[in-house]
Structure formats: structure tokens, C-alpha cells
Amino acid sequence: MTPQTIHLIGAPMDCGKRRQGCLMGPDALRTAGLADALTDLGHHVTDKGNVTPATFTETQDTHLHAPQETIAWTQALSDVAEATDTNTVPIFMGGDHALALGTVRGAANAAAKANRPLFVLWLDAHTDYHTPATTASGNLHGTPVGYVTGRDGFDGFPDIPNPVSHDQIAMLGLRSVDAEERAAIEQTDVIYVDMRHIDEHGIAKPLAAFLDRVTKASGLLHVSLDVDFLDPSVAPAVGTTVPGGATIREAHLVMEMICDSGLMTSLDIVELNPFLDERGRTAQLMVDLVASAFGRRVFDRPTRAY
Q1: Per-residue pLDDT tens over the stretch 120-155
Q2: 3-class DSSP state for residue 57?
Q3: Is residue 49 part of a domain?
Q4: I want to staple 163 with a disulfide (CB 3.0 to 4.6 A). Which of 43, 108, 150, 255 is the partner?
């Protein structure tokens, strides 16, 4: 495949939920050899270091967890994502999934400047379609899709000048959706594929159909990969474990199909909590999945001895 220019961007964001540890995610991915894996495939890789948010003052007058810190991260990550050169693929190494508040917003702004639509592939056990008003937990890592599609209630957050159209979002791997989120998302054109559908029909057909839509629209594709997309038996390093997730083979197939499409223009790797890992196995698996998305094939894949 054609070598690509890839920027690794650390986002040690740990304010989207109360359970701590995701701030170690970027360094875990570095230690697991992400840069080397991509360089070995012939790509031009630069580690741009970690993003830092602007100064903020946290308030205690809301049920939300760390809203001001999350707002500061959202603006900082949005600025970085929007400013990334169109010939470069940024990989945002998280950090909890609240980082997508900023990365998807920035990608949508960049797509609008290029006069192209942004499509989002959401690989997650959850829809993350809450608003600050509907999240019972107060954890803002459950709100990114609600935010970037322009739902109301995100007071104090940066405006959304270019909301992502619901019919340009596909969610794969769903198996834990709150009743209020379900009711809201069923009223939209979001493409949602739960694990029962995958069990019955496989993961390739819905993904292929979505990628075909991106191609026909000449769209840009942002992929947001949550560790809990995978079954916790193979990826334990996540604080939101939900049994019954994607297998290693299903996850690699998704990444290989993304690679074959040549459509991905930006990527999030989120919710990796090394504090919960087993001898780095989840970090190594995430590196392998990213390598599959950038051209590694079965005969290239190293055997892991955990």
C-alpha cells in the first residue's frame, strides 16, 4: 500500500469519568511499540507528544464530573484535529472517550473547510449519545456523539458549527445502551449494529455497506475505537467492561476492511487503562489492531506470548 504520513498525538485525558488510569494510555501505546509497528509497514510516523488543555477552574455546582476540565480538553483537541494537514492521518492516543468531543468536532470543521462530508465509525459497546442533562452518572465520556451531532444542553462547550449528520454515523458492537439513549437514538438515522446482529449476520456486511456510502459521498472517515468494543476476555484494560464484545478476529477484520477502503483520515484509540491490564496484553492488542488498519496482514502479524 502507499506509505502514509501519520502523526501520533497523545491525549492523556482522564476527566470523562471517575475511574482513573486512562491518562497512562498514550504512554502504554508508545511502550507497546505503536510507532515501530507503523514504521515497519513503511509509513512515515512522527510522535507529536501530548496535547495539554488550557488553564481551567473546576466548579462543584453540578452533577457532572469535571466539566470545566473536559471543556478545556475539548477545545484543545478540536484545535489540533482541525489544524492537522489533510495529507496526514492523526492517531489520537487516549485517554477516555470524552476526547472524541474534541477530535470529532475538529475533524468535522476540517471536513467542512475541504467541502467534504465527515463520516464517523463508532466502535464501542455504548452509543455515547447522552447530553449533560441526561447522563445519570455525570460522566462526560458518554456524551461525545450527542455533542458532535448538535444535541442541546452542552452549555459552556465550544459551539458546533458543523454538526455531523446522524446518517453519517455508524456504530458497531453495541451491547450496553441506557433506555433514554435508546429512545433518543431510535428517532435518528444513525446506523447502529448491536452484537446480536453481528452474531446473526456477521460484522462485514454492515461495515462494507457503510464504507461504500463514505466512498460514494467522497467523504472523510473518522474512526473512534474504544477498548470496550472488544470482549473483556481479550482486552481487560478498560473500566467499562461489558461481556460479549467483538472477538480478536472480528476486530482485525474491521481494521483490515478499513485499510482496504483507503478511507480513514483520523483515528481515536480510547479508554485504555493500563492500571487494569494484564502484562500489557490490551495495549499490545490495540497496537496490532492499528497496524491492521494501516496495512499489516495475517502473515505479517507477530505471535504474542503473554
Answers
A1: 999 999 999 999 999 999 999 999 999 999 999 999
A2: coil
A3: yes
A4: 150
Residue 305 lies in a domain: no
Report the CATH number that the domain containing residue 201 is assigned in CATH.
3.40.800.10
C-alpha cell at 63: 452533577
281 sits in the region (left: phi over 0; alpha: psi -120 to 50; else beta) called: alpha
Catalytic residues: 97, 124, 126, 128, 141, 226, 228, 271
Domain total for the chain? 1
Whether omega before 95 lies within 30 degrees of 0, making that bond cis, reads yes
User: In this model, does residue 269 exceed pLDDT 80?
Assistant: yes
CB 72 within 8 A of CB 56: yes
Domain assignment present for residue 67? The answer is yes
Q: pLDDT tens for residues 188-238?
A: 999 999 999 999 999 999 999 999 999 999 999 999 999 999 999 999 999
Cell of 97: 472517550
Residue 62 pLDDT:
87
Looking at per-residue pLDDT, the higher value among 187 and 302 belongs to: 187
Model's pTM, two decimal places? 0.96
Indicate whether 306 belongs to any domain: no
Interatomic CA distance for residues 137 and 139, integer angstroms: 5
What range does the domain containing 288 cover?
Answer: 5-300
Cell for 189?
438515522
